[in-house]
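Recall that a protein's primary structure is simply its ordered list of amino acids. Everything else, from secondary elements to tertiary packing, is in principle encoded there. The following example makes that idea concrete.
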Amino acid sequence: MSDKPNEPQRLYRQIAKQIQTLISSGEFAVGSRLPAERDLATQLSVSRPSVREALIALEVEGVIEVRTGSGIYVKSLGQSRKGKPKPLNTTSEWGPLEVMRARFLIEAEMAALAALHATPADLKAMSSALAAMQKDAKAGRMPRDSDMAFHMAIANACANSVMQDTLDRYLQARNGPLFARLGDYFESPASWEAAIDEHKEVLKAIQSCDAQGARKTMQKHLRQAHKRFSASWRSAPSRS
């Protein structure tokens, strides 16, 4: 018998389980369109971002299908042989939008600290990462790796290993299937162009040793990023 306490189930997984139960019970039949996100959020008394994370998890599991510009449809009952909902394979994964909200809190302060303490080597690392982002975007590649390098360069400028490790874990969560699927829908050349412009503002404030400006520009960037990933499914770029 394990002496480890049971980990609390992540909110998006609780919501996914509720939706899956409604599907299994027949309230949402296979082939039918699910209610809109905001209606599901109202019905389940949760936030829209949490519903979005749950729907992405269900899509990864093959229970639902997102048809851009049309809606979200039930693809399968998602049941085991005994008729119970199958457990999701994303048990330990953080919800993408939840991660972004956490980053909003910690990275704003990291940017402010970087503005006060960044060395010439730190500033060079940030500039190099930003240049790599621009190069990737110009070549038609999604600059995820160079984006991570930019944010980690800011964390490194804080000279605090706890902050570095914390942000590294947040950023590594982007490699999970939920974040990847969300990116499939809402990352585009236009969204990355906007993100690069926001990074330029952050870097300019840090280079100017403007702690308050760095804090505000990082908050602006992460707020806009959250907004991009929370946009209407109808505005998501087509994957066809």
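The chain has two domains: 11-74, 96-235. Strands lie at 64-67, 71-74.
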